[in-house]
Input
Amino acid sequence: MNYKTGLDIKKAILSKLKEKEYSLKQLEMKTNTGYLPIKKHCEELAFLKIIEIKTYKANKKNGRPYTTVKLTDFGRKIL
Output
């Protein structure tokens, strides 16, 4: 069994966000981690002002709400 620590998950999230903005679902797939751990760690990183979480009411493709995550300027400076 391959167990990821919280630090491993945060590192994976930040390495992906260096490339571009992602939705929580995309981060879940890119980091091979569950949705709830991704959401929890993103909320912690947002509290530290490293990333910004933005929630949209409806996706143009399917009408469902979704959330995107991107690095802040402060986050880019410290990485």
About this structure: Helices lie at 6-17, 24-31, 35-47, 73-78. The chain has one domain: 6-78.
